[in-house]
Specification:
The chain is mainly β and about 130 residues long. It contains one helix and three strands; from the N terminus they run H-E-E-E. The model has no long low-confidence stretch (mean pLDDT about 80).
Length: about 130
């Protein structure tokens, strides 16, 4: 689910399929986007949050250094975090928990959460 407060951080589906006063649609999938629309937990917004994620991968290559007397080792590497997530979850991140603590009814609520950052790193490790 999401916050209907001003439509912040919404999917295109929410923006395209919410109730509006200009074009009232009683069958809209989502309520009116407004500061006065309060979000309540409901089974209407429950989705299967199952996912498979490639969380962290690193590939490295050790360069032979026998010809270089003052260098003991050289390793080139590339790494990536949060490279791909396989899920049917329609929002940004199935691992989200923007509201509530461990004993709260709101655990796992996805309200204005941001997607997990995908990062890449390229580097070298040199031993002297």
């Amino acid at each position: 689910g999401s916050s209907m407060y001003f439509g912040e951080n919404q999917l295109k589906d929410v923006y395209d399929n919410h109730w509006t006063t200009a074009n009232p649609n009683p069958n809209a999938k989502y309520p009116k986007i407004s500061a006065s629309t309060s979000f309540k937990e409901s089974d209407r917004y429950i989705e299967d949050g199952s996912f498979l994620r490639m969380k962290s991968v690193q590939l490295a290559y050790n360069i032979p250094t026998k010809a270089i007397k003052w260098v003991r080792s050289v390793q080139l590497y590339v790494s990536g975090q949060n490279l791909i997530t396989f899920t049917k979850y329609s929002w940004y991140d199935p691992e989200v928990n923007t509201l509530g603590g461990a004993n709260s009814i709101s655990v796992g609520v996805d309200q204005t959460g941001y997607p997990t950052a995908r990062t890449y790193t390229l580097g070298a490790r040199i031993g002297f």
